[in-house]
Specification:
Elements: H1 10-18, H2 26-36, E1 41-45, H3 51-65, E2 75-78, H4 82-95, E3 104-107, H5 113-125, E4 129-132, H6 134-142, E5 153-156, H7 159-164, H8 168-176, E6 183-188, H9 193-202, E7 207-211, E8 220-226, H10 232-239, E9 248-251, H11 255-267, E10 272-275, H12 281-293, E11 298-301, E12 316-319, H13 326-333, E13 343-349, H14 354-364, E14 369-371, H15 395-407, H16 409-420, H17 423-441, H18 445-483, H19 485-512, H20 516-531, H21 541-544, H22 555-560, H23 562-571
Parallel strand pairs: 1-6, 1-7, 2-4, 2-5, 3-4, 5-6, 8-13, 8-14, 9-11, 9-12, 10-11, 12-13
Biased composition (Basic residues): 387-402, 514-523, 558-572
Motif (Q motif): 1-29
Biased composition (Low complexity): 452-465
Length: 572
């Protein structure tokens, strides 16, 4: 069918004529009439079939016909990535070239302050068509910069991709603020259960259009190299050996590998660029512009480029890593053989990816051609699989093994052996280990007794040596005593005589002076004995007084004969 046969606006048809678009694709032929009638549409078709024009052309035609409020947002198009939003904006500018009253703005993150101010101004003035990523549009919505009360068209492009990226909640929050009369259009490359549930909640009696679900174009020549991981770079060098390889995209599963591959190709003087999430928006725009304009021949990228990027003259797609999802494989190789062009898809399959590649072959319903390795790369692994993916082949497990091997070689090897054995063997080994530990812990009395005997012998020898030293010292002291004995005897006799004289003097003084303290103690003892109280252990002073007749200086002599006592005192 031709576009002229459809009920489109004349200005839109003029733009299509200038762009040399005459015939409709099957998706466009079935979707455009239903959208023009005002029905909700659920379109499921493979990538590269013209889904962008399938919803842009009827929406622009209806906006050009008029009847919609001015200075208000009339259409909201949600895109999963910035690159796809930019591509939709470029297609919009081409289709609306002759439409003077229709304005458009692209809203996505990663821009500077000037870009944000332009977005804010366009949203406040009410652009007719807003093409936005969910995250940036939610931020404007939360700040009150967007009025969705007059929206007439709500379009979800690559809906399955947005759900995979976790934008389901954002889509639901946006959809709740739309009016009930809004026409909803959803396009997806696949039809999982999540898309069906989302379609039931958003669409009202939709018209389902399904065409060639997740099937690559027939013009793509698919090939595969079964190789080891270390042989992949050699295969790439052999592919680019002939030269004149332009418009090539190399897909890898991680951004680190993208950097490594781009560095290796640049060292081989291959004009290449890299595209991954570590680049800011300016760098992404620069790389995409250079690749589209032909300044860069080879683009090494992650899956960020696998969907929605419309470049018609891609000649080859190389899968450096096998995607674990069949849909990702279809989207990757769908970058080539677009718009009736031929293309080639090469996949490098290592040992660990054989299972996933066989799943891709079973989904496609055919066996992909296997190519022999170039000369000098060695033998290839056998293309066989047990029906299950090999465990422990991920990069995370490999890093863990290398780290364990380098840091704790002996310990980790022992622990891995125990883990790999059966639990019965582990229990037996644990019991044996316990017995060994218990035997090691039991004391060896023979060894202890021998050690004690040796210690005792050593102690006896030390004691004998010390005794001999002591005896020698005593002998020396005796000899010195003999030499100094006469002098010491004289000194001792003098000291003894002086001590006797001092003792006699002290005894006489004690006899002369009455001990008043002892009298007081005797009186206390008498009182206590009469009352039956405490008893003193001191002797009575009368027992200490001299009783001899020779000395009448006692208390008895004082009481009986005081004059005689005084006379004796005077004589003394």
């Amino acid at each position: 069918m031709f576009f002229e046969d459809l009920d489109l606006n004349d200005n839109v048809l003029d733009a299509l004529y200038d762009m040399r678009f005459d015939k409709c694709t099957p998706v466009q032929e079935k979707c455009i009439p239903e959208i023009l009638k005002g029905h909700d549409v659920l379109g499921v078709a493979q990538t590269g079939t013209g889904k962008t024009a399938a919803y842009l052309l009827p929406v622009l035609s209806k906006l050009a016909d008029g009847g919609y409020p001015e200075s208000a947002i009339n259409c909201v198009i949600m895109s999963p990535t910035r690159e796809l939003a930019q591509q939709i904006d470029q297609a919009m500018q081409g289709f609306a070239y002759y439409l003077n009253g229709v304005s458009c703005v692209a809203v996505y993150g990663g821009n500077d302050g000037n870009r944000y101010d332009q977005e804010l101004k366009s949203l406040s003035l009410g652009a007719d068509v807003v093409i936005a990523t969910p995250g940036r549009f939610i931020s404007h919505l939360s700040l009150g910069n967007v009025d969705l009360s007059k929206v007439s068209f709500f379009i979800l492009d690559e809906a399955d991709r947005m759900l995979d990226m976790g934008f389901s909640e954002d889509i639901m929050t946006i959809a709740k603020k739309l009016p009930s009369t809004c026409q909803t259009i959803m396009f997806s490359a696949t039809m999982p259960k999540k898309i069906e549930e989302l379609a039931k909640t958003l669409l009202k009696n939709p018209v389902e259009i399904k065409l060639a679900v997740s099937k690559p174009a027939e013009k793509i020549h698919q090939m595969a190299y079964v190789c080891y991981e270390t042989q992949k770079m050699g295969i790439l060098k052999d592919v680019f050996k002939g030269g004149n390889m332009k418009r090539v995209i190399i897909f890898s599963g991680s951004k680190q590998k993208v950097k490594q591959i781009a560095g290796a190709l640049s060292r081989k003087h291959i004009n290449c660029g890299e595209m991954h999430s570590d680049l800011d928006q300016e760098q992404r725009n620069d790389i995409m512009f250079k690749f589209k304009s032909g300044q860069v021949d080879v683009l090494v990228a992650t899956d960020i480029v696998s969907r929605g990027i419309d470049i018609d003259d891609i000649t080859m797609v190389i899968n450096y890593d096998v995607p674990h999802d069949v849909e990702d494989y279809v989207h990757r190789i769908g970058r080539t053989a677009r718009a009736d062009h031929d293309g080639t898809a090469i996949t490098l399959v290592n040992e660990d990816d054989i299972y996933f590649f066989q799943q891709i072959e079973s989904f496609l319903g055919k066996e992909i051609e296997k190519v022999q390795l170039p000369d000098g790369l060695g033998e290839a692994p056998e293309y066989k699989s047990n029906g299950k993916p090999k465990r422990g082949a991920s990069a995370k497990s490999i890093r863990r093994k290398n780290r364990d091997y380098q840091s704790h070689k002996d310990k980790k090897q022992g622990n891995n052996k125990q883990r790999s054995r059966r639990p019965e063997q582990q229990s037996q080994e644990s019991s044996d280990n316990k017995v060994q530990h218990s035997q090691e812990r039991k004391p060896n009395y023979r060894q202890k007794n021998k050690g004690q005997e040796q210690q005792n012998n050593n102690n006896n020898a030390v004691e004998a040596k010390s005794a001999n030293k002591r005896n020698n010292r005593q002998d020396k002291n005796r000899q010195t005593d003999k030499q100094t004995k006469p002098n010491n005897n004289r000194r001792n006799d003098k000291e003894a005589a002086s001590n006797k004289e001092a003792s006699q003097k002290t005894n006489a003084q004690q006899n002369r002076k009455p001990n008043n303290k002892k009298k007081k103690n005797n009186n206390r003892q008498r009182n206590t004995n009469e009352k039956g109280a405490r008893r003193s252990t001191k002797y009575d002073i009368r027992e200490e007084l001299p009783t001899s007749s020779k000395s009448d200086s006692g208390l008895k002599a004082l009481i009986k004969k005081p004059l005689k006592w005084l006379r004796n005192l005077g004589k003394k």
